[in-house]
User: Fold these one by one.
Assistant:
Number 1:
Amino acid sequence: MSRLLVQGGRVIDPAVGLDGPRDVLLDGGRVVAVEESIDADGAEVFDATGKIVAPGFIDLRARLREPGLEHAETIETGTKAAAAGGFTAVCAMPHTSPCNDSPTVTRFIRGRAAENGKVRVLPVGALTHGCKGEQLAEIGSMKEAGVAAVCDGDRSLRDSGLMRRAMRYAQSFNLTVIAHCEDPYLGAGGQIADGPKASRLGLTGIPSSAETVIVAREIVLASETGARTHLTHLSTRESVEMVRRARADGIPVTADVSAHHLALTVDDVPDYDSNFKLRPPLRTAEDRDALIEGLADGTLAAVISDHAPHTGNVKMQEFEDCPFGASGLETAVSLTMQALGERVPLTRLIEIFTTGPAQALGRKSLGRLAIDGPADLTVLDLERHWTFRVEDSASKSRNSPVNGRTFTGGPAATIVAGNVVWRADA
């Protein structure tokens, strides 16, 4: 690996409170120096003048679809999209085919990522066999094989006793439990958020209570077991308030929100446009504002892409029949910047993509510019003017609700293990 000098940028590292002009020298895949001025003869120079240099951004929730669903996405195409979105590490959800519920599948994902991945892939193992919520998966063996956390994908465990045992078991291996919060009975058959729009369109609504009852359960179980628990893609005002109280009480709970839920509400959903059919559903402006406030005050730890690629023939079915989810890796950072605006300082924006997700995973080495730590950097250009078009996407799939949106600000370059794997001006 050649040496790379990232020169002339404004370096922001929330982990150590750094915010100022610095040079960063990378060598052998590690950070070797962060100083006001570095003279490194023979090093390749990346000119970061006028740009923000931050620790590598981490996405806590993306579906890379491989193995088994390569028609929608592969580890190669998904990580290309991640690099274009400014992410240096992506947590790959376990509901593939076969499901990542064994060390064999975990090792396969890690092997494919080593061969074809443009960014780091952090496999997330299943909590239960097949993500079916019936029998605990091989959590200990998967930890040895390299999973970063455990989760049952887009399902909440129906059995509270099993969830309690899963939390205790994961805790014994120092693994975070990532919980999708949706009561399968309250949300059964739902298509969009419950309310006037669902009634007007003749669609079954998904009530806020479908989320909040599970949020409440997971907080109670986290308090009882002491397990590190992360509540993912929250969407309601009530959920944010429960997490705020839980954290004030010292319960080991963190939470995130998807970028789409910061930028869009149920009122933005065009009639029967399947690109806007998300899980959890887009909710009210009041809910959206509560999510933003939760990020601003530190209640919510992170923003995620919630990348859920689907091919056109699958996604463009009748609204009631098509699957949930949107492609999001390339737009999550810029959407967040646009949605938050001046409501949060730049240091906090960077924190929710770096130290926030790293702490949720219990990974102290990630999300910071530590000497001898991973040489992963995200370079931001606050003045970059660009338009997202699905036909130009690195992802295999085109299911985005923000196709054609123009942004000011976004990733300028992505550096992984000291190598520039993507840059906007290339």
Note: Residues 209-225 form the longest helix (17 residues).
Number 2:
Amino acid sequence: MTDSSEGKPQAAARPHRQQRVGVVTTAKMQKTVVVAVERLVRHGFYRKTIRRTSTFMAHDELGARAGDRVRIAETRPLSRHKRWQVTEILERAGAEAAPVEL
């Protein structure tokens, strides 16, 4: 007899999924936010550092609002455009910009 848990991949054995930190630009949809992620890229010829922005649609169960800094992680395809999920709200938008305590 073998244990039924043997041979099956555990949640911890799942490959490491990509994570990004960005700012919520749009939060007008139900349970979906648009997150802008900036990265710095060096120009191939001029060697100047350029700021590039990518936008991702992410599933949001935590209630992020526009202007919040959030961490998103890769997930299975949830809809036609959503491939990311909000895992943590790092900083709320506002004058004080205090970190979120959950």
Note: The domain at 19-91 is CATH 2.40.50.140 (OB fold (Dihydrolipoamide Acetyltransferase, E2P)).
